[in-house]
Each structure stands twice: as C-alpha cells, then as structure tokens.
Amino acid sequence: MSTTSIIAVRPESRAMLERQKSAAKDPNRLLKQGVWAYFLLLIFEGALRKWFLPGLATPLLVVRDPLVLWLLIVTWQRGLLPINGYMVGMMLIGILSMFTAVLLGHGNIAVAIYGARILVLHFPMVFVIGRLFNREDVVKLGKVTLWIAIPMTVLIALQFYSPQSAWVNRGVGGDMAGAGYSGALNYFRPPGTFSFTSGNTQFFMFAGCFVFYFWLNSQSINRLILIGATAGLMAAIPLSISRSLLFGVGITMIFTLAAVARKPQYLSKIIPIAFALVVALAVLSQATFFQNATEAFLSRFTSASETEGGLEGTIGNRYLGGMVAALTGSSNTPFFGYGIGMGTNVGSMLLSGGTQFLIAEEEWARLIGEMGPLFGIIIIMIRLGFSVKVGLACYGKLSAGDFLPWILLSNGLLLIPQGQWAQPTALGFSTLIAGLLVASLRSVPQKRAVATS
Predict the structure, then answer these.
(1) 3-state DSSP of the chain
(2) Residue ranges, the chain, pLDDT below 70
C-alpha cells in the first residue's frame, strides 16, 4: 500500500491536512483566534478572579494585556495594522503622559504604565479587531453572544435571590462579603461572571444589539436561541436593577426602529419582534422571581430619578453630565495634570492604599485631571472624531440596506466617546464594540475599513 493511501486512511493525518488547508485559506486564523480569546477573557475573567483562581485575582486583572501586546506585534509585523491618525495620536499622548506623570505628576512609574496601557495597547486593539475580523466574523460573534446570554440570565437570577455569602456571589479574590452592589428593597445588583455589576450591564447592552439585529435576520440563527436570548434580555433588565441597561436597550430599540423606517419592506419584521417581546414579558410577568425583580427595579428607578431630577436629570448626569463641567472646570488643573493612571482604581490603591476617586468618576473629568487640559482635550477630540467617522460610515451602510453596523453603533456611541476606560471591563467592551464596528463595515473579500484610513 502506498504512503499516500496510508495517510488517507488515518483520521489524525486527515485532520492535520484539513487544518493545513484551512490555514492556507486563512493565514490569519491564529490571530483571529486571539481576538476570540480577547472576547472570552472579557466575559469570563471575572469568574476566574472570583471563583476559580481567586489567588491570582490581581494579575488576572490585566490578563488580556499580554494577548493584546502579542496581537499588536504580530499584526504589525505582517503589515496588517496600517498607520492612522487616531492610533498615532493616542499612542503618542499615552507615551508622553507617562513621562509627565513621573516627572511632573504623581511620580509613580507603575501607576503611569498602568494608565498609559489604555491608550498604547487597548485603543490600537480596536484596529486589530477591525483588520482581522470582517462582517461574517462579527455575525458569528453575535451568535455566540446570544448563546452566552441565556445561562448568564440564569446566573444573575441565582445571584439576585442568593445571599451575598453564597458561592455565586463571592467577590474578587474569594471575598465572602460578596460582589453584589447596593440595589433596592434589600436586593443587590448581580455582577454575573464579571468582577463588578457594571460588567453585567455592559454585557446585556452588547447582547441587546444582536438580539434586535437577528430578529431582523432571523433566518440566520436558531430561532429557539433567539427567543431564549430575547427572554433573557427582558429578564436581565429588572434583575440587574440597572437604569443604564434600560437606557442602553432603549437606545438600541430607537436605532432599530429608525433603520426599519428607512426600509418599509422591513416593517413586517417588526411584528415578530414586538410579538416576541410581548410574549416574553407576558410569560415572565407570571413568574414570582420576575415580579420581585421588577418591584426592586421600579423602586430603584423611582428613588434615583427623584434624586437626580427625573428622566431628564438621569440622562443628563449619566451620559451628558460632567462633559461640560470637565471642560469648564479644568482651570485649576496643572497643565500636564496630576499623572496618567491616577484616576484608576489600581492607581488609587497604589497611591493611597484604598479604592477611591482621586480625580473624578466622570470620564472626561478623569482624562483632563490625569493628563491636563491639553492632552486630555486632545484625547477627547480623538474619541469624538473616531465616533463621528465610524457613525457616518455606519449610516452609509444603513442607506445601502445593511443594518448590522448601524445597530452596533447604538452601543458604540454610549461607550466610545465617554465610556469609563479606567475600569478594565468597561475598557474591554469599549474596545470590542469599536473594533466590531470597524469590522462590520468590511465584507468578504476583505476590503480596507473606512475607519482605519
């Protein structure tokens, strides 16, 4: 028997040949897997830090950073990472801010490096994702997100009704005090697999984009998974006790309706969406767990709205609040700021021994406080400029009948311009949605993304 025939009948050899053929078709397959690893680590790094590897909670905080560094180096070496003004501006200011922080600011090089990695590593990662992924990859990631959303809903329901001492509510490093955050009616806001409750909110806002998209393209996904993820999203809103999640899902719904309004032939697709939402709400409303969660959510919503001055005050404080104040209140800030990294929780711990806002909770105020009026405002302008350019490109795709970039933009505009990048999970979701927006503008065969020029 010939060597060729022997190889042909060996399963392991056949599998190896298939892998070789696949690699030949897509030479960047390993790099794409790196992006998938970034996504999965973003979702599950909190679980590692709380439940499975609590002794490594501190180093796992930056577990995605070595992966990002490797992806940046390899994509650069392969000529897949084109230079653009957004990336150069961020990286240059990040490097300069390290020096000003050490020489003129807080003086702690570890804090400066930790703060600069946001601009030097994670923002360029946006263009790595946008270069390695294309529209089909974005759709695949969306399907996986809906699969994850179903057990995630079950998890947050368990956390919602379990005491803070329960294993599912254990905090970072195995903290027995629990990872839940103050909610309403003696219920705590559940964090899901994340280290903090904000991660759970950002995940379901992200998942909500794909829920709405796949209802408009239901033929491309398993209908049971879509229904399950839709019910999960509906349940997650009250279970999370998060007004931000309700606001984010509402924005995505508005973007979806605006898209459909431009294409009257898609109006018929709104009926299944509306029907699914009504049925999910009707079924969930009969469940005691949903009723209790809704009461807690409404109590939190009412009390917070009264404090902040109703919906107008809530939106103003949550999204628009602090922007103008950051620009007008920077007159007393040193020209080069107090030092990059000082406004992060890690920076606070290293500099003061505790977690507190040494500069500001709002993102724009943190940027200006850390890097000073000049560098801080330049960073803000880069983020706004990138958002505008991607937004215009998404609108162009919408005009051509492609809804995916437009619906993803609903989430991107909440995170890219002024998302709280000092928090690792928020930074991860901002990086991910920005990269997927760029990737969604690229079809197969791959073409140069609009936002990377």
Answers:
(1) CCHHHHHHHCHHHHHHHHHHHHHHHCCCHHHHHHHHHHHHHHHHHHHHHHHHCHHHHHHHCCCHHHHHHHHHHHHHHCCCCCCCHHHHHHHHHHHHHHHHHHHHCCCCHHHHHHHHHHHHHHHHHHHHHHHHCCHHHHHHHHHHHHHHHHHHHHHHHHHHHCCCCCHHHCCHHHCCCCCCEEEECCEEECCCCCCCHHHHHHHHHHHHHHHHHHHHCHHHCCHHHHHHHHHHHHHHHHHHCCHHHHHHHHHHHHHHHHHHHHCHHHHHHHHHHHHHHHHHHHHHHCCHHHHHHHHHHHHHHHHHHHHHCHHHHHHHHHHHCCHHHHHHCCCCCCCCCCCCCCCCHHHHHHHHCCCCCCCCCCHHHHHHHHHHHHHHHHHHHHHHHHHHHHHHHHHHHHHCCCCHHHHHHHHHHHHCCCCCCCCHHHHHHHHHHHHHHHHHCCCCCCCCCHHHC
(2) 1-25, 183-184, 304-331, 444-453
